[in-house]
Specification:
The structure holds 2 protein chains of 2 kinds. Chain A is α+β, with helices and mostly antiparallel strands. Helices cover 27% and strands 15% of the residues of chain A. In chain A, strands 2-1-5-3-4 form a 5-stranded mixed sheet, sandwiched between helices. The radius of gyration of chain A is 17 Å and the shape is globular. Chain B contains 12 helices and 12 strands. In chain B, α5 packs antiparallel against α8, α10 runs antiparallel to α11 and α11 runs antiparallel to α12. The chains are: A alpha+beta, B alpha+beta.
């Protein structure tokens, strides 16, 4: 168990939370200490978000909250009431794979696969940020339109570590989705 | 992790009163540093007052060309703001140099200012640390201190402030707006932070219950030509060994005016007035920038393992100055 109930005090520290997770409404009564990551994995049966470092250093737990990529391990679920949470499992339409998922398969962009759901959610969020014209630290101009070359992709994906070192193919997989219509 | 109560604040006064009234209460904004500290056992609050619903998340013009940044604006939104990108590029760059895309989407301006040092001994409960446990000793002075301070440290603490954003704000002479139980006050960013002295446990001058509500930027037209340069062990997603924020007005190859602050060198963002003085009226060259940094760091007191930071600071300032001079010519 990732959390511990203190006898006699637990009831005081519980909160009722309602969320949408991968399109489904979910409600739960939960200890205020529980992170979004633990709530997804331990309470809601959504295991696509992975626990790597649990301290915001590896990116394996990356999910989209209200469309923005965030770290589920540093998010308290109690603070998320009424939020829309999307994990890698909910990115595709119905049973189909999201184009990033297909591209990761086509480019062999993983070895063990543990960081992959976080990589894919992060890439989805990153592409939306670039589409809004957000610059990065390596952008030559802060105001020019964004062109996602390999250097830009690497910089914008630097919050997702891959211990297998599949970075070359991860960059290629993301690059290959550029210009495609999102589905 | 200790059990805690959670409440959402309805307004600033209520949030301040609630936290001020309980010694074990803290504000919760982005949570990226606080929640990590709670997991590490560095913080064990009994009440979290969530301020993210307060209307402090906008960037607004103020009279005289100033800009007010709400304390709850997320780091990524501030970096991407069109006004910030055009008028204060070193602030955008500093934000983009920090953390990762995910963390920037979560972290707020107020939280970024108040993030605590990443000194490994501070974060490790099994080692002595005067900042975490006053009087227990400093493990870094004789230990691993490659990332630690060469300016402004004391015999009790040599930790550095980790914020990139605060370095740019310091060079800009930004002013922090604070609401507390005794009312509102304004604090220049440079004065927000304390040097450790013999009380390293206090990072800032804020009192318990005081809430940062906004950061005001001066008009400062010269800031439109500015750079933030960060030197670190990895190309991305790492804290600074040395960083520098430079805004310079350059005319016909000479520096008319400059604002400079260093990061990674000290327990606070280090405003480099000595370097600014050397550069004022001087040629906008890398050589002069090296001399300016030498002047600023003449008082540096490196530890056994971090003397390289002195040279690194010179190189960082020189590189930034060359870039700005090149931009002024084009």
């Amino acid at each position: 168990m990732p959390w511990v109930f203190v006898a006699g005090r637990a009831a005081l520290m519980d909160a009722r939370v309602t969320l949408r997770v991968d399109g489904e409404p979910r409600s739960l009564t939960i200890d205020t200490r529980v992170t979004l990551l633990d709530a997804l994995r331990e309470r809601l049966g959504v295991t696509s978000a992975k626990k790597g470092c649990d301290h915001g250093q590896c990116g394996a737990c990356t999910v989209l909250v209200n469309g923005r990529r965030v770290l589920a391990c540093l998010t308290l679920v109690v603070a998320l009431d009424a939020a829309e949470v999307t994990t890698a499992a909910g990115l595709g339409a119905g049973e189909g794979l999201h184009q990033l998922q297909r591209s990761f398969i086509e480019h062999d962009a993983f070895q063990c696969g543990y960081c992959t759901p976080g990589q894919i959610c992060s890439a989805a969020g990153m592409l939306a940020e670039a589409a809004q014209g957000w610059p990065s630290y390596v952008s030559a101009s802060l105001t020019a339109p964004v062109e996602l070359d390999d250097g830009e992709i690497r910089e914008r994906m630097s919050g997702n570590l891959c211990r297998c070192g599949a970075y070359v193919n991860i960059v290629a997989a993301i690059r290959d989705t550029l210009g495609e219509q999102p589905r | 992790m200790r059990s805690f109560e959670y409440e959402r604040a309805a307004d600033v006064d209520g949030a301040v009163a609630r936290v001020a009234g309980r010694p074990d209460a803290v504000f919760l904004a982005g949570g990226t540093n606080l929640l990590d500290h709670m997991k590490l056992g560095l913080a064990s609050p009994g009440l979290l007052v969530d301020v993210t619903g307060l209307p402090l998340d906008t960037i607004e013009p103020l009279p005289g060309g100033r800009v007010r940044i709400g304390a709850l604006v997320r780091n990524s939104d501030l970096a991407a703001d069109p006004v910030i990108r055009q008028r204060y590029p070193m602030l955008s760059q500093a934000l983009l140099a920090g953390a990762s895309g995910q963390l920037r989407n979560m972290a707020t301006v107020g939280g970024n200012l108040l993030q605590r040092t990443r000194c490994p001994y501070f974060q490790d409960l099994s080692t002595p640390c005067n900042k975490r446990e006053p009087g227990s000793g400093c493990s870094a002075i004789e230990g691993h201190h490659r990332e630690h301070a060469v300016l402004g440290a004391s015999t009790s603490c040599v930790a550095v402030n980790p914020s990139d954003m605060a370095v740019a704000l310091c060079a800009l002479e930004a002013v922090v707006q604070v609401h507390g139980p005794g009312g509102a006050r304004s604090i220049p960013v440079e004065e927000l932070y304390r040097l450790p002295g013999d009380q390293p446990q206090r990072d800032t001058v804020l009192e318990h219950g005081e809430l940062i509500t906004a950061v005001d930027l001066p008009a400062l037209p010269g800031a439109a030509r500015s750079r933030y340069r960060k030197v670190r062990d990895r190309a991305s997603y790492a804290f600074a060994l040395v960083s520098v924020a430079v805004a310079a007005r350059i005319e016909r190859g000479s520096v008319r005016d400059a604002r400079i602050a260093f990061g990674g060198l000290a327990p606070k963002p280090w405003r480099a007035r000595g370097a600014e003085e050397v550069l004022r009226g001087a040629p906008a060259t890398g050589e002069l920038a090296v001399r300016a940094a030498e002047t600023e760091l003449a008082a540096a007191q490196p530890l056994r393992g971090n003397a390289f930071k002195v040279k690194l600071a010179q190189g960082a300032l020189a590189a930034a100055m060359r870039e700005l001079a090149g931009e002024a010519r084009s």
